[in-house]
Amino acid sequence: MTGGRGFTLLELVMVVCIVALLGLAAIDRLLYLREQAEKAMVEQNLQMLKAAVRLQVAGLFAANRTAEIAALDGANPARWLEEPLPGYRGEFESETQPNCRACWYFDRGRREVVYVLDRGEHFQPDAAGEKRIRARVEVERPQEMPGEAVVTSVPSARLRVAPYRWFGG
């Protein structure tokens, strides 16, 4: 059949190639956006853990149990949340870390809450080559300055997140 009623094989191959290239570009962009969404979720969860530490300290302070604040050093802040973190696997010894992706766990040996990345193409690994984000509850004790009166001797606690680079930030 002639007369311009169909596609030539070359035209069909060109259309398939163009559609395939557009599909690959779309998939690459979707993976990038998915990794950005994971980063946003991790940062939101870290903010929840920080708030849990602050609330724990405030509760002890309000109950006049300030001596117990020092015991929060290295504690698992995930225990203080009303609901578990999404993907939280529990507490593990350093040698028996869970084999998972996009999960949280508490490392008892290092006394840190850890997030294992699912997508990490834009994440700079730590010195050990791991794509993990680590945070630890640290108690801060007031320091006396020579010649100055100490306003309070009550320690405070905060969640210290180990520095990491994700998307160059």
Blueprint (SSEs and pairs):
Blueprint: H1 9-62, E1 88-92, E2 103-107, E3 112-116, E4 123-124, E5 132-140, E6 156-161, E7 165-166
Parallel strand pairs: 1-2
Antiparallel strand pairs: 2-3, 3-5, 4-7, 5-6
Commentary on this structure:
The chain is of the alpha+beta class. Helices cover 32% and strands 20% of the residues. It contains one helix and seven strands. It has one helix at 9-62; strands spanning 88-92, 103-107, 112-116, 123-124, 132-140, 156-161, 165-166. The strands form two sheets. Strands 1-2-3-5-6 form a five-stranded mixed β-sheet, with helices on one face. Strand 2 (103-107) and strand 3 (112-116) form a beta hairpin. The chain is elongated and about 95 Å long.
Number of helices: 1
The number of strands is 7
- Order of strands side by side in the largest beta sheet? 1-2-3-5-6
- What is the strand content? 15-25%
The helix-strand sequence is HEEEEEEE
> How is the main sheet built?
5 strands, mixed
Structural class: alpha+beta
Sum up the overall morphology in one term: elongated
Instruction: State the end-to-end distance.
Output: 61 Å
Rg, nearest Å: 25 Å
